[in-house]
Amino acid sequence: MGWIVVISGGPGGPQYITEIARKKAQEAEVLIGSKLQLQSVMPKKDQTVYEETSIERIMELIDEHRAKKTAVMVTGDAGIYSLSQKIIDRFGKDAVKEVVPGVSSIQVAFARIKEPWLNVRVFSFHGRPLEGLEKVLEHERVAILCDREHNSKVILRKLMDYGLLKGKREIYVCQELTLPEERVIKIGSPEDVKMIEVKGREIVVILSIRD
Ligand SMILES: C[S@@+](CC[C@H](N)C(=O)[O-])C[C@H]1O[C@@H](n2cnc3c(N)ncnc32)[C@H](O)[C@@H]1O
Predict the structure, then answer these.
(1) What is the pLDDT of residues 46-74, one digit of tens each?
(2) pLDDT single digits (tens) 125-182
(3) Hey, where are the domains in the chain?
(4) CATH code for 4-103?
(5) N or C: less crowded end of the chain, CB within 10 Å?
(6) Which residues, in sequence order, are CB contacts of 123 under 8 Å at separation 6+?
(7) 205 Cβ inside 6 Å of ligand 1
(8) 211 has pLDDT over 80
(9) From 144, 201, 202, 204, mutation site for ligand 1 pocket: most ligand atoms within 8 A of C-beta
(10) 76 lines ligand 1 (CB under 6 A)
């Protein structure tokens, strides 16, 4: 039946990958992941390992290894804005033997600011156009996944045009979570936005404050 194991690799820091994820990764005949993910799971010598981040190439590799137990590592948790969904769309649910859950970068962001992630509306502009960005401000508790182009600065500048700083809100930029360069920046003014040094991995959190 299924030959693919999707493994949630956590937000990046090796201490945030679960024991079961590491075990499942080491048990696979073929293991695909980013450099950071592969370093975290410490592959065995007899495994065929591919360091790969191109989605198209990952799909090809999965297809080429139909006869082998193939593990694919995905960022954070496989259940939210994940390559996992693309794999299922392409190969079908039956092709996937197992999805191993993990720690999402969104969970870490909320832990860092000491807030629950109940009723949080998650938006992703990772590889997506900024269409509908203004809708973010209609929600009380929001997490926005960014990317290098649609980074925290670009997104916050646009949201300021839509009135972000006019309402009572707590705003945070959470960068490189669980990694050595981790930073959580509280934003309260246009000057704070100007000062942001953007990073490759960023989540913007916006919380409305009730009177
Ligand atoms: C394709 S989404 C994957 C989200 C993933 N499924 C999860 O649960 O974290 C990638 C985005 O997640 C966020 N992200 C992932 N790892 C992160 C980290 N260590 N620090 C901050 N944001 C991170 C960034 O917004 C990044 O562009």
Answers:
(1) 999 999 999 999 999 999 999 999 999 99
(2) 998 999 999 999 999 999 999 999 999 999 999 999 999 999 899 999 999 999 999 9
(3) 4-103, 106-208
(4) 3.40.1010.10
(5) C
(6) 133, 135, 136, 142, 143, 144, 145
(7) no
(8) no
(9) 201
(10) yes
Calculate how far, in angstroms, residue 178's C-alpha sits from the geometric centre of ligand 1.
11
pTM: 0.96
Query: C-alpha 127: how far from its chain's center?
Result: 12
Determine the number of helices (DSSP H) and then strands (DSSP E) in the chain.
Answer: 7, 10
The end-to-end CA distance of the chain, in Å, is 55
CATH code of 106-208, in short, is: 3.30.950.10
Residues, the chain, total? 211
pLDDT at residue 1, rounded to an integer: 78
φ, ψ (nearest 5 deg) of residue 153: -65, -45
Question: What does the alpha-carbon distance between residue 183 and residue 132 come to, in Å, rounded to a whole number?
Answer: 27
Nearest to 81 by CA among 117, 36, 128: 128
Residue 57 confidence (pLDDT):
98
Q: Is 205 helix (H, G, I), strand (E, B) or coil?
A: strand
